[in-house]
Amino acid sequence: xxxxxxxxxxSSPERLAIAATVTLxxxxxxxxxxxxxxxxxxxxxxxxxxxxxxxxxxxxAALAAxxxxxxxxxxxxxxxxxxxxxxxxxxxxxxxxxLANLAIAAAGxxxxxxxxxxxxxxxxxxxxxxxxxDTVASEVGQTRAPxxxxxxxxxxxxxxxxxxxxxxxxxxxxxxxxxxxTVATVGGLILPAQLWIPVAAGFAGMLIxxxxxxxxxxxxxxxxxxxxxxxTLAAAGLALAILRLTKNVP
Length: 250
Fold this sequence. Notes:
Layout: H1 13-32, H2 38-55, H3 57-75, H4 78-84, H5 95-115, H6 119-144, E1 147-150, E2 156-158, E3 164-165, H7 167-186, H8 196-217, H9 224-245
Antiparallel strand pairs: 1-2, 1-3
């Protein structure tokens, strides 16, 4: 019988064991640091395993970088955010919040495992870059800017408003997306000439997130989790489109 996961990094029992062990340790650490709650640890563990087993240690390193940046930025100015009612739950993100940010990246790793198409690795990294860009931009913007601009009308709104963007937050967010792409490039998941693709797609995904937040979410039509999911999906789709349009398909 043909192995449907022939192209996966963890194509042997030994590598599967490594992926499972690292995943367990990562999930326990994230829970201990209160980055996630119990359900979030399970969901994050599943996403971590799929990324590691499918795309290898570099994909895990990119995920770890995402966690470090989001965990740090979430706790930046925590008391100020708490006073404004914008702080994350002290017990950490739940399963839906975790999957909204990681499901598309994990899916990209699975598709790569079955097809061997490296374009799916770039799409997965674009999804992770979007999650990093959006989260860091939002968290930094809430503490480094007195107010924000609503992306649809450019009117001033309180920092933390759905659809609001700030210059400090946007700069920090782009730096976070660049960090994810750099890890992927150094680790050999993507070529140096392709580094800009996850960064650009991730930043565009953040803008799409803000547009959805300013329109559908503010009207109560979709949840924040849905907004995050569609934004990561958009980033992955944009990365694939860029690869096709530039004929830069690995």
